[in-house]
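your task:
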Amino acid sequence: MKIEFLKRIVLSILAVIVLIGGGCATTGTPRESLSQLRSALLNHDAETALRYIDVDSITDHLVDDILNGYGTSDEALTSLGIGVGRNLQPLLLPLVTEAIRKQLRKAISSTEDNPYFGSIRKAHIFYLNVTVEEDGRAFVEPKGKSDFAFRMAKTGEGYWKIVQLIPNKNEKK
């Protein structure tokens, strides 16, 4: 009787391991791409990490969010500033994007033990809620209390990239 019980326990444990391993190894999912991104960050591999981060799209969204956040203003100076920002956006956006890309590459490649690497080491992809939306993009947010979220989009090569940061996840667009 004890041997039969032990066999059931061992088989149950093996089944759980296979299911968890299968879930981790499922290719072409946002979780798999996030797992690859996490590994690249921990290994200070900027080239691989940037494969999963669409800096151009993130920068575009952030600038649009900033400019749209101001909308219009009754104050002449603020209104002028918004207009100038919108007119300069096509000229400055490539410079800003390249500066962000260089800073990301430098931070990822650095062997200094930055505080965020501690968070990445402790984090696991299963602590994230991942919802694939109707438009085919994925909305990702940490479980529990958090003020941020992000969106991912599937690439033509079959992996997913972070394309938008959402600082206030309650403003899900």
Helices lie at 2-25, 30-42, 46-51, 55-70, 76-109, 115-122. The CA atoms of residues 141 and 149 lie 4 Å apart.
